[in-house]
Amino acid sequence: MHYRLCGIRAALVLFFSSTPLLAQTAPAAAPSPREQYRVYAPKGEVKGALVLLPGYGGDRDSFDPASMVTPSTLPARLAKHGILTLIAVPVRETQFESEAVLRTLDSMLTSVVRQYGIPRARVAIGGFSAGGTGAVRYAQFCAQRKCRAVPQLAAVFAVDPPLDFERLYRTSEVIVKRNAPRSNIEEESRLLQTMQHAFGGPPDEAREAYRLHSAVLASAPDGGNARLLRHTPIRLYTEPDVHWWMEERNLDYHGMNSVDHAALINLLRVAGNTGAELITTSGKGLRPDGRRHPHSWSIVDEPELVRWLLVALLPAA
User: Fold this and answer.
1) CATH number of the domain that residue 157 is part of
2) Any domain includes 97
3) How many domains are contained in the chain?
4) Strand ranges across the sheet with 37-42
5) pTM of the entire structure?
6) Which of 108-122, 180-194, 212-226, 267-281 has the lowest mean pLDDT?
7) Which residues span the domain enclosing 268?
8) Is residue 88 classed as helix, strand or coil in its secondary structure?
């Protein structure tokens, strides 16, 4: 799939680990009939929850420690503090451009909140790539009082997600026209077709649709949906390695998701959100097989992220 949007679309090699760290967690005995989610529940009292959304094409095992795309120890680390982790896949291949997908996610979370007795004020969400797009959009969905699962989210984070569909469309359009070496014209053309179908045309013909479905619209003075998160703690992780993108993909700053991240956090801070953070890294973007790629889950410092989440989820602790 689209390397800028969702990273690699590849088969996952997944194993269930029996390491001491993961012994702190237990997958739910009965996932949904379509295997759309997996629950890692702590032993004992459930004090809160984190919803994790994988990238495009990911499945409910995407954050297993042995994953070949997004290996993670977050579920195990959080379980030690009584925090349940829900790996949710409302639709296997989605860019979270549809409110229907957000409603499906909300139904899944509602079911898990009831089943485990999760305090509704202690739920956070995060995701990688397109899953990060979904995490931010779901937080905005809840801020509009459309969620049944929770009244609002305690915090949201996202790792290198595309957030401004207008910017994404125009970038893809330019890439196709340039037809430069190392550019995947076929993928960019499909992305353009997908957005035209989803939003009813290009941005110049369907501007309101792009405003409604983008997490941020940098060309709008108010940032579009950005304003909905002015009271929500939020972190965006990005590794803006422009030299890698120039050498490997013939892209510059305009083609990087990083510009969306800076736009959203800047707008929120201007609006008074002191809990809006842009986390930039350097040299941390590595895929599980050791290949260099700034669009990688590995840019996250997981122990530090856990500390941040615990402040939001267990404020009295």
Assistant:
1) 3.40.50.1820
2) yes
3) 1
4) 25-27, 37-42, 83-88, 48-53, 123-128, 155-159, 234-238, 276-280
5) 0.89
6) 180-194
7) 3-163+223-313
8) strand
